[in-house]
Amino acid sequence: MKVLKMCCEKLTLVALVFAAIFSTFAGLSNVSAKQMTTLINAETWVEKPEVVQEAQSLKKKDTNLNKREIPEGWRDQKVLSHTVVRQGPVSLEEAKNWDEYPSTTVVATGYTAGVESTGKTEGDPLYGITFSGVEVKRDLYSTIAADTDVFPIGTIMFIPGYGYGVVADTGSAIQGNKIDLYYETVEDVFDKWGKQEVEVFVVEEGDGHLTDEHIYELNEDEAMQVFRDEKYYAGAS
Predict the structure, then answer these.
(1) Could you report the per-residue pLDDT of 91-150, keeping only the tens digit for each?
(2) Which of 118, 125, 151, 185 has the greatest count of CB atoms below 10 A from its CB?
């Protein structure tokens, strides 16, 4: 009799432990006793299509945090770790770390295609044509003049306050560390630049050649179009 009583007590204790474990699992996973039975049945009697279908739907159930457990304000937030995201376009001067490029200090002046700078009038066949043969241009990439012994034709540089300049021209007064920046009018030369000492950054050294096609490709680069708005690129005209 004692033995029978002890066996019953042990069986009762085992049943209580099993019930506690099952209850804890069900609470954490949101799976009910009926659903658990369905899962077991699906693993054991796979020939019952309706049981398998219900079990598969249960397996897909998210047993982690669901939306109702996530604070309302967090649901639509995107977290970018250790990254500061700026809203809207930035200027050319902010777009790159210019310190990564070779730099030099130059005296920069402005010039036009007109007689006051080149001695040519609009009726001249060579009016607006640079030493390299390309047409003068004020754009995202503008034509500039330099001493080709210092900056060969085709050299691309960034001039803070002006933008990208591509060496396309020369000049008798442009010797050593001097450059001449192209503007469309004399008024722009005086109003927007004048004469300045400035640190320029050499993005690419030229090979002595330049074409209108290359200038066009630089200015029409899709990634550069955001800077066309005069608010966002240096020295906009």
Answers:
(1) 888 888 999 999 999 999 999 999 999 999 998 999 999 999 999 999 999 999 999 999
(2) 151
Buried b (16+ CB within 10 A) or exposed e, 149-172: ebbbbbbbbbbbebbbbbbbbbbe
Residue 237's closest CA among 169, 167, 185, 165? 185
The C-alpha atoms of residue 181 and residue 194 are separated, in whole angstroms, by 10
**1 three-state secondary structure:** coil
In this structure, are residues 128 and 136 in contact, taking their beta carbons and an 8 Å threshold? Answer: yes
HSE value, Cβ hemisphere, 13 Å, CA-based, for 52: 7
Closest CA to 218 of 153, 166, 181: 166
Q: Which residue has the higher pLDDT, 223 or 216?
A: 216
Kindly give the pairing relationship between strand 156-159 and strand 178-182.
unpaired
- Gyration radius of the chain's alpha carbons: 37
CATH topology of domain 97-228: Barwin-like endoglucanases (2.40.40)
Residue 136 CA to residue 84 CA, distance in Å, equals: 39
Task: List pLDDT tens digits, range 4-30.
Answer: 556 556 666 656 655 655 555 555 455
Closest CA to 198 of 182, 184, 178, 183: 178
CA distances from 170 to 30, 48, 106, 136, 139 (A): 79, 88, 15, 12, 19
